[in-house]
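During the second year of the project, the team shifted from modelling isolated chains to modelling whole assemblies. The rationale, set out in the original proposal, was that interfaces cannot be judged from single-chain predictions alone. As a representative example for this report, we include one of the complexes processed in the last quarter. Its constituent sequences, exactly as entered into the pipeline, are reproduced here:
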Amino acid sequence: MSNLGQLIEIPTHRDERGSLSVAEIGGVLPFVVRRAYWIHGTKPGVSRGFHAHRKLNQFCVCVSGSARFLLEDAKGRQEVVLDRPDRGLFVGTGVWHEMHDLTQDCVLLVLADGEYDESDYLRNRKDMGSA
Ligand code: T46
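Output from the structure prediction step:
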C-alpha cells in the first residue's frame, strides 16, 4: 500500500485528571507552524478538500470526532481514518487530499507551515505532476 500520509502518535500525558497531548518542534512536529485553522460544524454528508498543495505541509488532528482522509498522488492512494486526539496525520506537498464522513462533533485541527495562499492550491488532479 502507498504511504502518502504519515500517521504520527502524539505524546500524551495521562493522569487522573485526563489527558494532554503535545505537538512541538523537536517532537512530532516536522515544521515550524505559521498558521492554524480548524474545521468544525460540518453538515452531514459534506466532503471537503479535493486539492493538493504546491508548497504547503500540514499536520492534521481530529481533536474531537472523526474524519476519513483519502490521499492520492501519481503513485497511489491511501485511506486514513483520524478518530483520536492523540494521533496526527502529516500531509506533505503534492498530495491530493479529500476529507469524507466528518462526524457532527468533528473538530479537525490543521497546523500548517505557511500562510493562506490561494495560488498554492492545485484543484485539478491532472495538474498533480506540476506540484
Ligand atoms: C486543506 C484542508 C485540509 C481562509 O481564508 N484562510 C485559511 O487559512 C483557510 C484554510 C481557508 N480560508 C477560506 C477559503 C475559503 O473561502 O475559508 C474558506 C474554506 O476553505 P476551503 O474551501 O479551502 O476548505 P477545505 O476544507 O476544502 O480545505 C481546507 C484548507 O483550505 C486546505 O488547505 O488542506 O482544509
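The first strand starts at residue 5 and ends at 9. The pocket of dTDP-4-keto-6-deoxyglucose is lined by residues 35, 37, 39, 48-49, 58, 110, 116 (CB under 6 Å).
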